[in-house]
């Protein structure tokens, strides 16, 4: 089998599953739908594993599948670039996707849209694979928008829910703002590099770095900076970076499995992947890197803070995702692309785990998502409890767990960086560690420890037959994927830190200038995963995380009085609950603003000026003129004779004086 | 072979017209059934005869192909001169396919004067083919103006309550624009030494001041037709009052006569004026894209919304043409074809809803997906295509035009790319309010999903829209040489 066929199998088998489940869902039934889609994703995972083995042997593929269009001298192609970066992403995408597929059998068991849901998540897997396997900007954009489409469909999966269809429109539009920048970036690349093929563009990076572009009269900008910032605006939309993050918390209106797959593990990391892929461009623009770094730091710190005041279990995890995406972006900003990819991978595992575990809690609680009505679930849902604890520890960076290795690598990289803004970023990521531990263990204590607080309250899905049921452990099909992800969350960091960061895994794929090589500097202090883990207990991040856990324990478990005394922070709490008033600002400025502008242009511009004054005005003018001329035709001979005499006099006068 | 007796271009021009006449003769009160079937046969045959043309068309040849020539009015040297390039061919294809959809769309819906209705569309289809085939300016002008008559009747007879106002506005607006064209053509006849051949016009040198006047005279016709801001206000009214089929043809094909006119006449005949005035045209195009995008956002009538969306999308066509580069112009042509399919599909979708509930108000709907899931899925394809999602034909044209605009000026591309946000906003907001949410009313709850006829139409269109989006190469190949020929002509100075 040629490698091209293998790649096609990897990409297309989820598509096939999606089409079968989507178009013939009624014929093949529920079990048919999940069988074909799971089969498709499994085949894709196996193919990805073979590809992975291949690239480890040093095999790199770069070639076209077909020519999309031929315009002038430019050849727009659909093609694959299979190297270590895409292979890693393929594994992450297909493995998490497979777990989510299996989990969904249990989670969506009672949903009437069962087949449709499987069709969508398989379609998503296909689109995401096309995105990561692309060898050019065009196909990247195709995948980019296609995952956005599926995200739109899945957030609005429960299309009767007003909040869901509000959220999916918002998600699509905010992403479109990012895509707007992204497309401009692509257009700049095409114009100045004459190609959209990665290899051809990257080969010209030094040339692009020396050029200037004049955006405003007389002010020259570095071309590569403008390109990179435009591209990064796309990443800000997709990877939910401040201020384009507003869609992600609302996307929690979708079913939980897709929150795990799309809005935590894979799609939202597309922006991170993209910047890592574009490292040969970003490396030549310190200004762009600095911009990336500062946006990432703001997201990492301030989005984590919002997680502190959420009561909805999924929203806590969502804000945690935003904050962690901020960490990855920070890593990109200090040129630690490999650390960003490393954190992307570990985060995919432990965040998918946390989301799916939250989903398991939600099933166990009969669709109650409010943590104020949970508590003490440790005894009622032991497996979910254990995997959640593992996920939370991985998230806060407890030594030896996967999150520890990746997050510490980022913090250390920032520490060594000299990019402007890295001082601020270092403080932000350190405070972020404390915040992460605080909100994670607030959630953990509220859900799993203490006393059970009833479950009812304002349940979203107020299903009366479930009302009095006790929480219970989820079925095996739900917890099995959790266990697999938990195992990955524990070990994936320790086993892969050395090859990924220091073993030259990304050599020749990710490009870093020597002066920016913070990972290399960090590597000088690295003496194996064991030593790093042991050393982890003595570092500042560990103590910060521990402090977060202790504070969370004190406030939310040990001392209810301490919790009451938090009311002194009421103004801050309000600010956080209102999400820094950004949603209100968007609603007021952009949503209402553009509607008002539209109304103004329509009623004044179109109806009054163009139609009223010019079009119908000229019709009226013609009408008036006609009326005047009609009045002249009175039909009386005497009138005509009178006018004739006047005319004769006038002519004679002109004739006399004209002489 | 039939084409040995009559030229293949004459066949595609006159076949629909002959069938239109036939429908008029055979049909009549009580014979609706037969007139529908003859019309369908005519439209399908009209499309089939284009296939050999598509296959035999030489994609590497820069001159006009399948040329036919015979004298018509000798004293003015006006000739029956036909010939096509790739741009004509692709638009002819769009036209003949649209005609089939129009006949099918009116099948059970039109019950009043069925034979007249179908005849009007068939004759219109032939005339539009005539515009795309003409190489004689007078012939072009005659066909161009003649298309007004059937469309005037379609709106005026089968239209909505305010149809007379809309029909008259449509007629006067576009006629006023094109009368100036006639003046320009007569001037060209004199300067070219007594010829109405468009090819002779290409070779005629014209002083700059005259070029500007000719450009403006032609512009008056084509800008109204396409339509450009600020001469666009006839279109929303015409669409709202037109029957579904009328809207489909208007949006899918008739608007393209304007774009085609720019490419066939304005640019090659008065290249210096076109270059000089291009910045203004670009400015108007960008205003159309952004301004109209905002206006579309707040429309309450679905047809009006799609009409405004059409104007905004036509902004891409004029932008693509007047930035004078390959990406832009190919994008403009692809955008014309793609918009043809997408707007046709969207108007058909509105028609499907209108036939059931007799309302086009967005507010009267809501939650349609509950009773019409298949329709909702198909509608989504077209909504996404209208928003320019990659993988649909809507993306191809917009993408190429934005790429081309970047080569001219960053800010042109910036303004054009606003459509990514605005197009998604107005289309998907409408989609949300119509399709999603709680069931709007008792009537909506009782809606029946699409029948076989409706499903087939929309499904075929969905396949076309996605097919072109995934593999536009056959289309860019057909127009490639023609576009570069026009660009060459437009870059040679003539004064």
Alpha carbon gap, first and last residue of chain A = 105 Å
Numbering strands along the chain, what is their spatial order in the largest sheet of chain A? 1-2
Largest sheet geometry of chain A: 2 strands, antiparallel
Structural class of chain B: mainly alpha
Enumerate how many helices of chain B there are, as a single number. 24
By DSSP, the count of extended strands of chain A is 4
Order of helices and strands of chain B: HHHHEEHHHHHHHHHHHHHHHHHHHH
Q: What is the largest interface, and how many residues per chain?
A: A-B, 50 and 57 residues
In terms of DSSP E residues, the strand content of chain A is under 5%
If you had to describe this structure to a student in words, what would you say it looks like?
The complex is a heterodimer of chains A (659) and B (495). Chain A is mainly alpha-helical and 659 residues long. Chain A is 73% helix and 4% strand. Chain A contains 28 helices and four strands. Chain A has helices spanning 3-23, 25-56, 84-107, 114-133, 137-155, 162-193, 198-202, 205-210, 223-238, 247-250, 256-265, 270-277, 279-282, 286-306, 313-333, 337-364, 377-380, 382-396, 402-416, 422-448, 476-502, 518-523, 529-536, 540-558, 560-564, 570-577, 582-632, 637-658, and strands at 61-71, 74-82, 212-216, 219-222. Chain A has a two-stranded antiparallel sheet with strand order 1-2. A two-stranded antiparallel ribbon of chain A has the order 3-4. In chain A, a hairpin with a 2-residue loop joins strand 3 and strand 4. The longest helix of chain A has 51 residues, at 582-632. Chain A starts with a helix and ends with a helix. Residues 458-467 of chain A have low confidence and may be disordered. Chain B is mainly α. In chain B, 76% of the residues lie in helices and 3% in strands. Chain B has 24 helices and two strands. Chain B has helices spanning 2-5, 8-26, 32-48, 50-56, 86-105, 114-133, 137-146, 148-158, 163-191, 198-203, 208-225, 234-241, 244-269, 271-297, 302-322, 326-357, 368-371, 373-386, 393-408, 410-417, 419-435, 442-445, 452-470, 473-491; strands at residues 65-73, 78-84. A two-stranded antiparallel sheet of chain B has the order 1-2. In chain B, helix 2 packs antiparallel against helix 6. The mean pLDDT of chain B is 90. Chains A and B meet through strand 1, helix 5, helix 6 and helix 27 of A and helix 9, helix 14, helix 16, helix 19 and helix 20 of B.
